[in-house]
Design brief:
By secondary structure, the protein is mainly alpha-helical. It has 2 domains: 91 residues, HUPs (Rossmann fold); 97 residues, no CATH class. Helices cover 51% and strands 9% of the residues. It has 9 helices and 3 strands. Strands 1-2-3 form a 3-stranded parallel sheet. α1 crosses α2. The longest helix has 30 residues. It is globular, with a radius of gyration of 21 Å. The relative contact order is 0.12. The mean pLDDT is 84.
């Protein structure tokens, strides 16, 4: 059976491609496969946080594919197949080289500030500074400056078996001091992170 593969994202072009594939499948007696690629995280997180985010991204992918499946079925009468892949993992399985730097391990934390070292860095000074430097329109500075510091260590809470921000001591879903964040600090952190990854990449290529 002929199958039409559509890469799913949130663009208008994706919807156009999906409708075209559904109609062609209906006319030719074919099928539709929807592929959702989960991109690697832009910033390194504590291992426990990264796992939670990976799980949330997969749930988001499944929800997106499920919603689009209804439209495909309405247009073609065919229930599409789902395919979810993690971009980096797939590339490595095909022979590509990849470097994964755990910045939570020595000597990296000392280069990224006291908040990062202490583990109270979810939407706090560390992460908010990074966002202010990279995509400032995502930060409501008027709100951030009014948030009191939450010194609770999220990494320690995860290690202790806490399963939600509320259980971890973050009723408002942030840890650290977002009011102390700045774009200048974010630029410095981005530069430091780039250096860490560059050194790791050079070491990998030298092997």
């Amino acid at each position: 059976m002929r199958k039409f593969l559509v890469v799913v994202d949130k663009t208008p072009e994706c919807m156009n491609a999906l409708r075209f594939a559904a109609r062609r499948a209906a006319k030719t007696g074919g099928g539709v496969t929807m592929l959702y690629v989960i991109a690697p995280e832009e910033f390194q997180h504590w291992v426990g946080v990264a796992e939670v985010m990976r799980h949330e991204k997969r749930e988001e992918a499944e929800a997106r594919l499920g919603a689009l499946a209804d439209e495909v079925r309405a247009l073609s009468g065919v229930m599409p197949e789902f395919a979810i892949r993690e971009g980096v993992a797939q590339a490595v399985s095909q022979g590509a080289k990849a470097v994964f730097v755990d910045v939570t391990r020595r000597p990296h934390p000392a280069k990224l500030g006291a908040e990062f070292q202490g583990g109270a860095c979810h939407a706090g000074r560390y992460e908010t500074s990074l966002v202010m430097a990279a995509t400032p329109f995502l930060v409501h500075e008027d709100l951030a400056v009014g948030l009191p510091e939450n010194p609770t260590s999220l990494s320690e809470a995860i290690a202790a078996g806490r399963h939600s921000f509320r259980e971890a001591g973050g009723d408002r879903a942030y840890f650290g001091a977002p009011a102390e964040a700045s774009a200048a600090e974010g630029e410095a952190l981005l530069s430091q992170l780039a250096t860490i990854y560059l050194e790791a990449a050079r070491a990998l290529l030298a092997e």
